[in-house]
Design a protein that fits this description.
43% of the residues lie in helices and 19% in strands. With 472 residues, it is an alpha+beta fold. The chain folds into 2 domains: 338 residues, no CATH class; 107 residues, Immunoglobulins (Immunoglobulin-like, Sandwich), CATH 2.60.40.10.
């Protein structure tokens, strides 16, 4: 109760700062090779080839993947989605959520370690850093040096490449919303619009800051996934785990020495597992929310075990129950098929089925009929009762169509005057529609009718909409 808090007025201001918050220590991660690293590299190459390459892919004379917000059309190869198709976006988000739940329940933060954009771009930026400044020890020595021409040259080159990559990333990102060929022409001619300029610079700055400087801070303090992953894993989830029973007590020893003869475990306390960790944690302290499951410590530890002649797997992907009960690989994998996994898988399959089925059966022709409130139901020359509507026709394909409109539901009902509309490719039109019935058939009341639109093609497509016909 009488403990004295650090006095900010004291000379050692840094002590007071550390009392208020944890001061960040720069992490110099060491390069590592191995099976998990190969997978990370492969996924970095795959995701970035996809991200940077898709906007340049052309399809039927237009950009294959384009989210054109100005015209409210989303192009995905031969498919066009409209605002009315927002249900597919909702399903896609649900599928992504259930997919994340499933992967987390199976193998922890697998997405974080291999496919998260923060991890991917941090890996790319660190690769550039290593190529210019060297591996871990070389970077530590470089930062400890006084500023000189060599150090300035390396730093300028590194940050120049980082900024170039970040701006290219921002340019590519905007290229998904503005046709990238048009965008490239505007960049070359220095005629970019204000919003395009803002988003290229904003996204570029975010990439440069997150991947170049903040790095593990995003994973530790900004990412919400790190905080709620614990509710999605259990004792059968595969996670990066240190075998403390085998490794402890840790300590130094000579090569090819039986550790048991010296009362030690297999861990040689080399700390390489800490040096290769991108978030700077010590996996030997147990599972921590900062662990992104990248497996770098597994590759590093396996290499050390090979050098000292011990079996691999001191650090490995395993589950809490597998460690505790000393299960074999076969037993470990058998316990993955537990109720949680089966439920997540079943729900994911249902959602994927609904998504694919919905896209496959989506109507290429849509119709919406609205009563024209500015024109009352009336009797017109020719012995007819007329109702006027506004008809919206939407062609979701990239083929121009001629659409014939007819009305059904009452005896003698017909579309008066104009009943054929030219509907260009991937457009929608809003036109007046006049529907009549003979006065002789008209009895006062409100009647339900159906408006049907049919294309005049070899293989006609049709759509219909319900509305009402009022007889005054």
């Amino acid at each position: 109760m009488n403990a004295k808090a650090p006095d900010p007025s004291e000379d050692d201001v840094s002590a007071s700062e550390e009392w208020l918050y944890e001061v960040r220590k720069k992490i110099y991660s060491r390069a590592v090779k191995g099976w998990f690293n190969n997978w990370r590299v492969a996924l970095v190459l795959f995701t970035q080839a996809l991200f940077y390459g898709l906007p340049w892919l052309q399809w039927d004379g237009r950009q294959a993947v384009l989210l054109d917000l100005s015209t409210r059309k989303f192009y995905f190869f031969g498919m066009i989605l409209w605002p009315q198709d927002v249900i597919f976006l909702a399903l896609l988000l649900i599928i992504s959520a259930y997919g994340l739940f499933l992967f987390t329940a199976i193998a922890g933060r697998l997405f974080c370690g291999y496919a998260c954009p923060q991890t991917v771009y941090t890996e790319i930026f660190m690769w550039i850093e290593r190529k210019i400044e060297g591996d871990r020890l070389a970077r530590i020595r470089l930062d400890a040096q006084d500023w000189n021409a060599r150090k300035i040259g390396k730093k300028v080159l590194k940050h120049g490449l980082w900024i170039a990559l970040a701006l290219w990333t921002g340019f590519t990102f905007v290229g998904y919303f503005t046709p990238i060929l048009t965008l490239a022409g505007q960049v070359i001619s220095a005629s970019l619009g204000p919003w395009q300029t803002f988003w290229i610079l904003f996204y570029g700055f975010a990439t440069y800051g997150n991947a170049g400087f903040m790095r593990e801070q995003v994973c530790k303090y900004m990412c919400p996934y790190a905080r709620f992953q614990s509710v999605m894993i259990d004792k059968d989830t595969l996670i990066v785990t240190y075998d403390a029973e085998r490794g402890e007590p840790r300590g130094k020893r000579g090569k090819n020495v039986d550790p048991r003869s010296q009362g030690k475990g297999d861990c040689v306390d080399c700390s390489i597992c800490v040096q290769v960790c991108p978030t700077g944690i010590d996996i030997r302290d147990g599972l921590q929310y900062m662990c992104i499951g990248c497996g770098a410590c597994v590759d590093a530890c396996d290499q050390v075990m090979d050098k000292v002649g011990y079996p691999r797997g001191l650090i490995r992907y395993s589950s809490e129950n597998a460690m505790k009960n000393k299960w074999s690989k076969r037993q470990q994998w058998a316990h993955l098929l537990r109720p949680r996994i089966l439920i997540y898988s079943a729900l994911l399959l249902v959602m994927v089925g609904l998504f694919v089925g919905g896209l496959a059966t989506r109507d290429p022709l849509k119709i919406n009929v609205m009563r024209d409130r500015g024109v009352l139901s009336r009797e017109i020359p020719g012995g007819l009762v007329e109702n006027v509507y506004q008809i919206q026709l939407m062609n979701t394909t990239e083929k121009a169509r001629k659409i014939r409109v007819e009305a059904k539901g009452l005896e003698g009902i017909a579309v008066h005057d104009r009943n054929v509309y030219e509907l260009p490719a991937s457009t929608n039109i809003l036109e007046p529609l006049e529907v009549t019935i003979p006065v002789d058939n008209a009895k006062k009341g409100v009647y339900k009718i159906e408006i049907i639109a049919t294309s005049e093609d070899e293989k006609p497509i049709s759509a219909s909409s319900q509305t009402t016909f009022i007889v005054p």
